[in-house]
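Quick one before lunch.
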Amino acid sequence: AAEEGFDLEDVEGAIEAAGHGPLPVLAVVGRPNVGKSTLVNRIIGRREAVVEDKPGVTRDRVTYEAEWAGRRFKVVDTGGWEQDVLGIDASVAAQAEYAIEAADAVVFVVDAKVGATDTDEAVVRLLRKAGKPVVLCANKVDGQSGESDASYLWSLGLGEPHPVSALHGRGTGDMLDQVLEALPQAPAQTFGTAVGGPRRVALIGRPNVGKSSLLNKVAGEERVVVNEIAGTTRDPVDELIQLGGKTWKFVDTAGIRKRVHLQQGADYYASLRTAAAVEKAEVAVVLLDAADSISVQDQRIVTMAVEAGRALVLAFNKWDTLDEERRYYLEREIETELGQVTWAPRVNVSAHTGRHMEKLVPAIETALAGWETRVPTGRLNAFLGELVASHPHPVRGGKQPRILFGTQAGTKPPRFVLFASGFIEAGYRRFIERRLREEFGFEGTPIHLSVRVRE
Ligand code: GDP
Ligand code: GDP
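Model of the guanosine-5'-diphosphate complex:
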């Protein structure tokens, strides 16, 4: 490194920064209008259009990346969903429940000007049962005079209320310091069962693609309920299922079963659920209805899994209903609509007839293997050396930026850091990614490529 003009400390820092595993997850929960979305905007340090959203309007995006004091984590915002047929208490409880379940720590937001309401108390009960670390945010304390309102919230029994003005930023720094103390370095879900435990699969997809049918078909009588959720629902959340001679943990299967008919906010509720399932899983099996056009919603679900850095399998269901013409058009649609994930293994199944069910497990295993692949540094650099020699970066402004060396900083998914003598264009990065895939496989996994340029 040193002879290539990089300071050893920079190199080590870059590798460490790129090599982080999955990030810990923080959920922000509370009643409507207490300021959750405002707080999330403050935490992520930019203004997403979350506060302007009207009730009932689809909002797919529920997780954001954030950084505080040099530590990165994810934030799940539950602030986009108003109220549904369940009534206010049940809806707040239900959304909090999903968010809490996927989280490593929780910020519970209360409006200090209003004080604790019955709905707040209901959320407190959920938080107690879940046993996750909680930071209590007494919001709307815009000035000194509001501090006494905040102190009343000691009565919730969640420890110290942190007086905050999400709107103006007052107190948010202190609160975030508290959050960092509550958050584990790495998500418990991911590393808790890393050695030898069943692999965690999220079966996701838009409504009516056949998720519950597929689950019933593959699970048969072998379903084992592994945990009862704390709180409002009687549904099991994760199930152990025997498949292909192995035990798999299908996460969040309660979301797959139909339990309530939601109207308002149903889309948002579904994306929160999907995001929660993806967070808990190692591999996402995205189910699509092969008889139906690939929709924006399908694409968003795929993107969610990719952005979360999970292994990915695409399963096209209802194959029994396809005629030749539809099969032809489906292939074209896959090329145009799912061109970003050509690396994902694909299975064409029918939950009704059982067609190709036996191909599901090999596809999942392939994706997980890709996800965990580690390329030794020597092999990587031999490959990069050849690549740079045979396909040099185009000359720009009389200079030719070169990749000098690289290393794989992490797995799950594979993360690479390349060190270069000058700015590497996006097209060339994509070329490298493509060649990396050709050379080393990485089937079924997103890969991250970051480039450091010598000063
Ligand atoms: P959510 O429904 O919990 O996500 O709440 P929002 O973030 O949408 O905020 C609800 C309302 O409270 C908005 O009008 C915000 O501008 C306002 N609000 C949020 N935080 C504060 C705050 O710290 N102080 C004051 N005065 N108003 C706030
Ligand atoms: P979910 O909302 O994704 O859980 O979808 P469901 O499992 O409830 O299935 C939605 C509808 O599609 C139901 O009417 C199922 O009977 C039907 N369905 C599911 N899988 C198949 C399949 O492989 N072939 C056919 N023809 N219909 C299917």
